[in-house]
Amino acid sequence: MSWIFNVVWILSQFLSTTLVTQASTILASSALKPQPPTLQFKYCDPDGDGKIELNLEQISQEALNYYGLDPNDSEAILICNSDGSYVKLNNPSQEPTLEYICQVVGPLTDIAVNDVGDVFVNTFLSIYKMDATDCSYSSVFPVIYGEVLNSLSFDTGGNMYFGFADHSKVYRYDADGLTDPYVWHDFGQGNAGGDFVMVDGKLYISWDDGSFNRLYEVTVDANYNYVSHIDKMELPEGTYGLASEFGSLYGVTIDWLYRIRLDTHTFESVIYNTFGNGDWYGAAGLHEGMIFNAALFSSSSDANNNTNPLPPLWTNTQSGQQTIYVRIENETTGEYVIHPVIITVNNTPQLTQPENLMQCSDDEVNTFDLQLVEDELLQNVTESVVVSYHELPEHADSGTDPLPVLFEMDVSQKTIFVRVKNRNNDCYAVTNFQLIVKSSPELAPLVTNRTERSLSQCYITPSGRGYFMLDEMYQQIVMDGNSNYILKYYSSLSDAQNGYNRIPKLFYSDEGSVYEIFVAVTNDDGCTSISNFFLDGNCVKYTLDLGSINFPNFFTPNGDGIHDFWNIYGVSEKLQKETIVTIYDRFGKKIFGFKPYNIIGWDGTYNGRPMPSSDYWFEVATPIGARFTGHFSLRR
Q1: Is position 298 within any domain?
Q2: What's the rounded Cα separation, in Å, for the pair 409 and 416?
Q3: Are residues 222 and 96 in the same domain?
Q4: Domain residues for 202?
Q5: 451 exposure class (CB count in 10 Å sphere: 0-12, 13-18, 19+)
Q6: Which strand ranges, in their side-by-side order, compose the sheet holding 97-103?
Q7: Which of residues 435, 468, 491 is at a domain's end?
Q8: Would 405 be classed as within a structural domain?
Q9: In this predicted model, what pLDDT tens digit does every residue of 500-530 receive, in sequence order?
Q10: Which residues contact 398 (CB under 8 A, 6 or more apart)?
Q11: Quick one: 189 and 128 in the same domain?
Q12: Fewest Cβ atoms nearer than 10 Å: which of 225, 232, 287, 325?
């Protein structure tokens, strides 16, 4: 099945049309004027392989608008004026410009073009055929079917339609001219407000219902006879004419030409009447009576032979740049032209999503170096690019209002949009990342000596060595009440700042030494603050810690120098001096009492006599009122 599609204008949302100086190749229709520069389309490929699926219906429509069948007679709309002249609006879909054509008689109430390009105009009373070469005109026939002739058009079969402002009938004059004009359809109420033009096989009429201008969509049969109609939408007030050109429908008021979007029921302004030729009364597409087909091909030979047309959705087969060919054909005359169309697909920079930038700060204003994301962001980018940062996504898309790379902000979190554009073309990619400011833990300030902040509680190991539990400083260090922070300890400020040479939470001290401990406190957000405190090794001498008291389970007082005495161990000097140990036999009789500091221990005698091997009990009483008991064995 041949894919030759009637072109329906679809407003391009992302095509970038560029004119280059390469001449077009004409393979048919020899009586044509010099060719315009080749039409070129540029795209950006998001996945970086240089290929992209293209909507060829859009491309063929733009090619049709640009080239037309006659390269120097592309899309245009004729507008008739109240002063009896008519003008030509060139390139209505791109960059419209107005050109004065002819002065006829006035006022002209409408203008029309038939299927072979003949131009007709009418006054309130008559219809005339124009000769554009010398602006002469001849009467077609006087109109006797109404009093106020205000509408004139042709269908794509060459049949003429006209209507009046004083009744609801629409008349038709057949292309063969064999019969007089006749009533094509009587709408029963209202009157013609403007033209009757063909778009995609439907006839569209601007109809005045007495209150508003309505757009009627009329279904016709193969011979253009009326079948039915629907009220499509309300038109802007004072719409006196319609025009169709290469599949687009336009409306005209006395001072405004606009495009009618049939799919969205909206209107797009094209141009305003500021040209001094009176009010605009009617309009016609230069090619509205003609049917053009446009098809695209991968080679000029296929285009010339009208074989192997490309499908409506097509992916380019050559990365980077590829030339395809458009064949534009007049369905009525069979005349056609072929032009090259250059497709250029550039790669979009392939970005890596960067990590957010975070700072730990309690300042009101914080400065971020936005360029810190670029190593990660650009790690897969091979092209030369320009990077810019923006506060809004629309600014990133347009490349406007870039931010300084050293960016100050006074909020705790902000989204930054980064645009990366290829230096060699217009392709760019946009992503975003967050700037985040987190609060650091609130700690007690640094101190300079042990009298300001120190850990006074220390402990004794069973072997008599002193140590501190550093986490016991948590409440003195952390000031914001959070109990879930992570504390790490260091022996110098620089180590704490850099996380080097961490010391354990169980810190062993030497008697007589003073230690300064730096603590790095980290919250769940990874923010760290640093404080400090002191340790006094002399604490070991004065502690009353009972938790580390140790005593032997037995002793052997036989004079061999091994286990000859029984005593308690793992206590401080203060505890040794002030604690009383009392020993009892198993019947509860007191055998001996002593202070651990004063003697080596009990030698196993009672009043100088050796006691027998047996189990004995002891009681330890401290000066702070703490007591505990236990038992041990004497072995002979």
Answers
A1: yes
A2: 11
A3: yes
A4: 76-285
A5: exposed
A6: 97-103, 85-90, 76-81, 280-285
A7: 435
A8: yes
A9: 999 999 998 877 788 999 999 999 999 999 9
A10: none
A11: yes
A12: 225
